[in-house]
Amino acid sequence: MNCLFCSIIDKQIPADIVYEDEHVLAFRDINPQTPQHMLVIPKQHIATLNDANEADALLLGRLSLAAAKLATQQGFAEAGYRTVMNCNAHGGQTVDHIHLHLLGGKALGWPPFTDQLKTV
Ligand code: AMP
Ligand code: ZN
Predict the structure, then answer these.
(1) CA distance 86 to 93
(2) E strands along 21-98, which residues?
(3) Is 45 a catalytic residue?
(4) Neighbour-count burial of 45, counting CB atoms closer than 10 A to its CB (0-12 exposed, 13-18 middle, 19+ buried)
(5) How much is the pLDDT for 115?
(6) Is 96 in the pocket of ligand 1 (CB under 6 A)?
(7) Of 28, 44, 107, 108, which sits 20 to 30 A from 75 (CA to CA)?
């Protein structure tokens, strides 16, 4: 399978890895949208959130917990941060291996995107 994030997990493609355990890997986003922007991914390939099932519930939870741990390690947990998982075209997903964006280092606006107010 040709998957960019699986290649990063297998260390075939370099990444700025900031956290790793048995189930989860996290690395800095190559095109950061905030001063702190990391991606938390499962080591198991799941293409989109739509492809996750009941058996993946624990793994999905691990992504959030790893993001919180990472925010603490990086020193911005108390200030706050946002986690986002995009799904498919309307969600803006460009890499088909699920990933939790961890965004921090500045105060973020809400709602996050002005175009979310457009009617579909
Ligand atoms: P999404 O648009 O939600 O699928 O997010 C994919 C993210 O992966 C984007 O924020 C990209 O900047 C990021 N990205 C793509 N290639 C790499 C890479 N080789 N290393 C780190 N981040 C990457
Ligand atoms: Zn993959």
Answers:
(1) 5
(2) 24-28, 36-42, 81-84
(3) no
(4) middle
(5) 63
(6) no
(7) 44
pLDDT per position as a tens digit, 76-93: 999 999 999 999 999 999
Given 45, 97, 99, 101, the catalytic residue: 99
CB-CB contact of 28 with 19 (8 Å): no
Question: Residues 88, 94, 97, 98: is their CA dihedral positive or negative?
Answer: negative
The predicted-structure confidence for 15-65, as pLDDT tens digits, reads as follows 999 999 999 999 999 999 999 999 999 999 999 999 999 999 999 999 999
Distance in angstroms (rounded) separating the CA atoms of residues 117 and 12: 40
**Token pair in block for residue 83:** 């986690």
The residues placing their C-beta within 5 Å of ligand 2, an ion, are: 3, 5-6, 45, 97
By C-alpha distance, which of 11, 27, 30, 10 is closest to 19?
A: 27
Residue located nearest, by CA, to atom 8 of ligand 1: 29
Q: How far is ligand 2, taken at its centre, from the CA of residue 5, in Å?
A: 5
Opening angle at CA 48, ends 46 and 54, nearest 5: 65
